Amino acid sequence: MTKWRYLLALMLSLLLLACSHEQESTLTPTLMAAQKQFETVEQRDLHIAEMRTNHMNLLKHKRDRTVYQGIRTPKHSLNGCIDCHVPVPTVNKTVKHTDSEHFCMTCHVELAVKIDCFQCHADRPPVSEKAVKP
Amino acid sequence: MQRTDFHEIEISSRRFYSILVTLAGVLVAAAYAFFYMESQGHFVTGMNNQVVWGLPHVVAIFLIVTASGAANVASLGSVFNKPAYQPYGRISLVLAMSLLLGGLLVILLDLGHADRLIIAMTHFNFDSVFAWNILLYSGFFVIMGLYLWSIMDRTATAKRCYQPLAYLGFVWRFILTAGTGSIFGVLVAREYYDILMMAPLFIASSYLIGTACFSLVLLLLYKLEGRQLSEVIKSRLAISLCLCIVVVTLIELARHLLNYFIMGYTAVEVFVLRDAGAVTLMFWLGQVVIGLVLPIILLYLPSVKRSRLAIASTLIMLGGLCQLYVIIIGGQLQPLRLFPNAVTETSGNLDIAYSASLPELMLSLGGVAITLFVFTIAVKVLRLTPANS
Amino acid sequence: MTNVNLIDRYRRKFLGGIAAATGAALAPGILLREAGANPHDQAVSNKVRWGMLIDTNKLKDGGDAMVAACKKEHGWGDEPNSKPEQQGQWARKVTFQDKASDHKVSLPVMCQHCEEPPCVDVCPTGASFKRDDGIVLVDKHICIGCRYCMTACPYNARSFVHENLENQKPHSPRGIGTVESCNLCVHRVDAGKQPACVEAAADAVIFGDLNDPSSTISKSLKKYEAQQIRADLGLNTGVRYWGI
Predict the structure, then answer these.
(1) Transmembrane segments in this chain: where (chain B) (predicted)?
(2) What residue numbers bound the domain in which C120 lies?
(3) C10 plus C85 within the same structural domain
(4) Residue A122 touches partner C, C-beta closer than 8 Å
(5) Which residues of A touch C168 (CB under 8 A)?
(6) Are residues C55 and C36 part of one domain?
């Protein structure tokens, strides 16, 4: 795992070098806004900092606890992430994991890190049955 | 004892590269088939929820079993101390490794998640025969590689290691083939696979098919060089083939009789040997007639001397392929009986049938092609071929 | 670690006491976990073994409703590209007719959640596993799609996802290149609920803890002997039947 982290760091710093003359915004792609917002900026920044560096470890840890021990608390649950970060599908628009605007994909496409989470996991929040019927 | 010199095969570059290009063509097609299956999913194959292992597995296991048998010539030279075989030990080992590589690649590329190879290497369930086989196959490369080094290197260290490695290689091959047979043997739900007979059957078959494959490849190599293979080795190979045919026939006979009369697996025996259509035909015509009866007649008849070894070897390999098809596909085609002594019908999708699709065929051929590709390069760049025998 | 375990054990015992007290007031079968208060955050324990008892005599439709409920809950069986024999199939209806008596019986067949599951023994990576509470399931994160478990299963209970899927149920992840089967609605059981098929045939099916001698299922099993499919294999299945 650490190897990958170094590789990521290397790639990031290369990217940094390459873009150093450009604006800062090229470093962090614009992500979709979350459905729920934190009450304070500090909470939000803490969440961003933790998730940016650690989301894969947290998700993996949680995944094993869920699959093997049946622990299904909301904390670090992938469904929880999706429910907040991906909009609920509407009649007009569904954001899928194949779209680059999908919250997870924006960065993963940018960094060329392929994930297979969504081969099995739902990539969008469930549509409540009442909402579908007009 | 006469010293044997070894050389790289003497064929023209044009010929060498045309062989490689032809094989590369097959490999490109196989790679395309793999990516097609990988991106679309297995619905593009003939495999389904009943027949979960298809043609790629038949060919892969054929190559693996052949690999173990092809190294037999090396063992005969060292472990059994038969000097006549010693000059061919190098070719035998390289052929074995190439065959195993081809077989493993096909199995790997047919996985639902070939991209998770690393998981297969890091997560081991030691209750699983399959997991043990992964270790056995990896070990095969290492041991055969070291064994080849001990044959080819002239240092004192290599000479010292030669005998122990030869014995280790022999034992390892034995376990590897038994392990491959046990993949099927441990399946309690499938009556056609009984542990008692699967391991010995696979060992015997591997000797037969492996020796046949080696004979054919050796004959081809000599033909490419425009040389004649010595009659001594030819007749020795023919005799071992005859012996192996007798042993395989006896074990197969014992297996079917045991299944039918003693184990009580009458239904599945009747199914495979009488009612399974193409599989039944493959058993009687492919495995029995082409794979066992015709070759032994050919090898014993004195009148058809010329190229009889080549023809017999080809037939034996075809028969071996049929044998594995009957075992793997035939065993899965038999419906599982949930309720003995009752007529069962299911509302769900349980039609049991199998026919290979084009991508599967291409992937399987790719396994054969990679074997030949690696082997061709090896005999061209390494001193494997005896120059004066 | 041991400390935590002790605390856990104590807490479970305590909560179990409360649960038993309240449980007595509730109808049997509704309360499933000893700690009914907040089951989400507790690791499953091997003190429990979930099981199911299906009374085929009371099943009016031979299990069609149960199969349909499973399909709806997990979303299998409508893969657009797969041929019929390649479709997902977690449960199916089997009808058998005894040769001697002509007696016809229909029953739903799904993963039998064996105590000694052959699929778990053969899996090379350990993806096919049995949870502490007896539920047999596939960890699709480490499933490499070799299908060895499918050949090993005596019940034909497993299927392989033959194509790319889209819009899966959030509570039931399933995807290309992995093997799947009935997981006893593990997400519902973990939340203290009953499997979907049990709810669909509440009169005919009892779900509960086989290890608890006072549970409805254990008592029922004691009253009349229930059969296992292929009992000769000695797998000690968690799914039992009456009337086969």
Answers:
(1) 16-37, 57-79, 91-109, 129-149, 170-189, 201-224, 236-258, 278-302, 309-330, 361-382
(2) 48-242
(3) no
(4) yes
(5) 120-122
(6) no
Count of beta carbons in the 10 Å neighbourhood of residue B332? 26
Chain C nearest-CA distance from A127, in A, is: 10
Pair (C136, C219) in one structural domain = yes
Q: A120 in contact with C at a CB cutoff of 8 Å?
A: yes
Output the average pLDDT for chain C. 86
pLDDT in tens, C202-213: 999 999 999 999
Residues C31 and C73 in one domain: no
Greatest distance between any 2 Cα atoms in chain C:
61
Q: Is C229 on the interface with B (CB under 8 A)?
A: yes
Residues of A in contact with C186 (CB under 8 A): 70
Using CA coordinates, name the residue in chain C closest to B347: C93
Chains that touch A (3 or more CB pairs under 8 A): C
Q: Give CA–CA dist B148/C7, Å, rounded.
A: 60
ipTM computed for the complex? 0.92
pTM of the shown model: 0.89
pLDDT band at C33 (very low <50, low <70, confident <90, very high): very low
pLDDT tens column, B69-82: 999 999 999 999 88
Q: Do residue C133 and residue C16 come from a single domain?
A: no
Residues contacting B208, CB < 8 A, separation 6+: B69, B241, B244, B245, B247, B248, B316, B320
Burial (CB count <10 Å: 0-12, 13-18, 19+), residue B134:
middle
Residues B316, B295: Cα–Cα separation, whole Å:
7
For chain C, the chains sharing at least 3 beta-carbon pairs closer than 8 angstroms are A, B
- Distance from A35 to chain C by nearest Cα, in Å? 18
Of B39 and C11, the structure prediction assigns the larger pLDDT to B39
Domain count, chain C: 2
| Closest in B49, B111, B187 to C86, CB measured | B49
> Do residue C54 and residue C79 come from a single domain?
yes
